[in-house]
Amino acid sequence: MMELLLAQPRGFCAGVDRAIEIVERALAQFGAPIYVRHEIVHNQYVVDGLRRKGAIFIEELSDVPSGNTVVFSAHGVSQDVRQQAEQLGLNVFDATCPLVTKVHVEVAKMRREGREIIMVGHHGHPEVEGTMGQSETGMYLVENVADVEQLAVADPLRLAYVTQTTLSVDDAAEITAALRKRFPKILEPKKSDICYATQNRQDAVKVMAPQCDLVLIIGSPSSSNSNRLREVSARMDVEAYLIENAGELKPEWLVNRKRIGISAGASAPEILVQELMTALKAMGAVSIRTLDGVEERVQFPLPVGLGGNEERGSSVGISHEVR
Question: What does each C-alpha distance from 310 to 78, 105, 144 come to in angstroms?
Answer without folding.
Answer: 29, 25, 44
